[in-house]
User: Which sequence fits this backbone?
């Protein structure tokens, strides 16, 4: 029997259950129009064939994992291994979110061909989260300083820097299920898949982390299927003209949301988590995201009436400073992270100046200040010296120092009788379109305002097993590790900063008598 015939026979087994209504079966409503559409079958795969393929991949991958544990001839780069405490902790949560979303889609759409693809992707995403947890477990057992790896799941849930990824995942899991599928499959799975999984596996190999290299490659082999799911979803939706403006709105939102979350993470990883660099984060993003995705894949949608995102030019200009501004945030707030930092060397600064002309002018002063605040005996926290933590965007949770600290696009808007702090035009548009979607969550200042920094670190649980030494450190191999007493001696109280200027919808400042 031919594959198509066998596949059609299996599809014919599908039925409409009589014991539950359609409304009760599809537990989440969607604003998109799905009835009567002819679904595009992303791939013809039987479940048994899928299981066999994944089983073979698992066997190959875990053989490599075992061999790496037994036969490793040298230690990976310390900068990389410490940064992966933060990186892997957040990646697992993003994979788990993707698994939940594919389950939502399987319950929300009618066409069986699409449901089949979504259910297989749900299994893929669970596999990925397990693979990444195994990397964390491996590194915790083999790395010279396991502190941080042992609290990865907890830290992903309470770390202030991880709020960027949590807000993206929570936004995805609570939006319209079809909108979420577009955000996940079109942007995270398609636009950023190569720059992340191929780029990260190349970086891991260059740093000597063979375990993560193998993990990223076996995950990437699933991503082609997820890209096909995204294209199938799009080409099915565009059959109904009523969906075109809905698709446009969803793509506008998630092009920006992904840029300021997953895209930001990619940039930080590629520029600041590596010692042995091949190309800059900007070069990677321009090649894989903006040239290949927006210049290729996205342009295929123009014939259906889908326009390029309105903030595409802003997104590209952000690449000049995005990773460096994120690094100022992470390194400046090092006590509330859970890994050892590796500050830039003169060679790093020279490399960045070559790749990002003007780097030393705008970011050199921070790194010179940082170098004077590493020794606990000096009783100086760089965060205090620079004036404390900034405000955080109520949509994406980025600090209001982007695109660059001296030209922050942060603003305050008044809506519903309340002031709201946002980081950019893109996040302002998203907030105004659905303000209740972002209301109610507690900010870092709601939780910790008025507390000493040492008490915040203790509450977060970022203390080593001796009960006094911080997991995070401002350098890889300091002469003495910072303790809670050292932080307390700096007298750094968490103070909510003043809000940025209130602006109207055009971006013009609003004076007090206009309010």
Assistant:
């Amino acid at each position: 029997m031919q594959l198509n015939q066998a596949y059609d026979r299996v599809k014919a087994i599908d039925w409409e259950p009589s014991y539950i209504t359609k409304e009760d079966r599809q537990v989440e409503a969607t604003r998109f129009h799905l009835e009567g559409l002819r679904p595009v079958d992303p791939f013809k795969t039987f479940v048994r064939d899928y299981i066999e393929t994944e089983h073979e991949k698992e066997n190959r991958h875990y053989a490599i994992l075992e061999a790496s544990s037994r036969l490793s001839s040298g230690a990976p780069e310390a900068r990389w291994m410490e940064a992966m405490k933060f990186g892997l902790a957040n990646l697992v949560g993003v994979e788990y979110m993707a698994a939940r979303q594919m389950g939502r889609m399987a319950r929300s759409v009618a066409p069986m061909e699409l449901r089949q693809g979504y259910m297989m992707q749900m299994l893929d995403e669970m596999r990925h989260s397990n693979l990444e947890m195994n990397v964390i477990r491996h590194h915790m057992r083999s790395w010279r300083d396991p502190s941080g790896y042992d609290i990865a799941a907890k830290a992903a849930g309470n770390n202030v820097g991880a709020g960027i990824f949590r807000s993206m995942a929570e936004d995805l899991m609570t939006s319209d299920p079809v909108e979420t599928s577009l955000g996940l499959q079109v942007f995270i799975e398609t636009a950023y898949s190569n720059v992340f999984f191929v780029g990260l596996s190349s970086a891991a190999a260059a740093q000597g982390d063979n375990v993560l290299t193998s993990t990223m490659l076996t995950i990437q082999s699933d991503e082609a299927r997820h890209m096909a799911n995204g294209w199938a979803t799009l080409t099915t939706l565009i059959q109904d003209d009523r969906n075109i403006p809905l698709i446009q709105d969803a793509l506008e939102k998630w092009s920006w949301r992904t840029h300021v979350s997953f895209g930001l993470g990619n940039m930080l990883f590629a520029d600041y988590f590596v010692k042995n660099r091949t190309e800059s984060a900007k070069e990677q993003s321009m090649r894989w995201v903006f040239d290949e995705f927006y210049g290729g894949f996205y342009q295929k949608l123009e014939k259906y009436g889908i326009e390029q995102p309105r903030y595409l030019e802003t997104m590209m200009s952000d690449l000049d400073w995005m990773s460096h501004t994120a690094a100022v945030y992470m390194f400046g707030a090092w006590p509330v992270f859970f890994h050892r930092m590796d500050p830039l060397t003169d060679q790093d600064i020279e490399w960045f100046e070559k790749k990002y002309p003007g780097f030393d002018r705008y970011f050199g002063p921070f790194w010179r200040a940082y170098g004077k605040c590493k020794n606990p005996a000096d009783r100086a926290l760089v965060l205090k010296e620079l004036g404390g933590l900034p405000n955080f965007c109520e949509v994406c949770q980025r600090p209001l120092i982007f695109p660059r600290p001296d030209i922050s696009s942060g603003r305050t808007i008044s809506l519903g009788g309340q002031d709201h702090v946002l980081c950019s035009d893109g996040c302002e548009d998203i907030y105004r379109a659905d303000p209740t979607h972002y209301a109610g969550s507690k900010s870092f200042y709601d939780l910790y305002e008025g507390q000493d920094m040492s008490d915040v670190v203790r509450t977060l649980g970022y203390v080593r097993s001796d009960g006094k030494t911080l997991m995070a450190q401002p350098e890889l191999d300091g002469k003495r590790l910072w303790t809670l007493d050292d932080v307390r001696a700096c007298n750094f109280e968490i103070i909510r900063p003043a809000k940025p200027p209130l602006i109207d919808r055009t971006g013009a400042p609003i004076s007090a008598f206009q309010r």
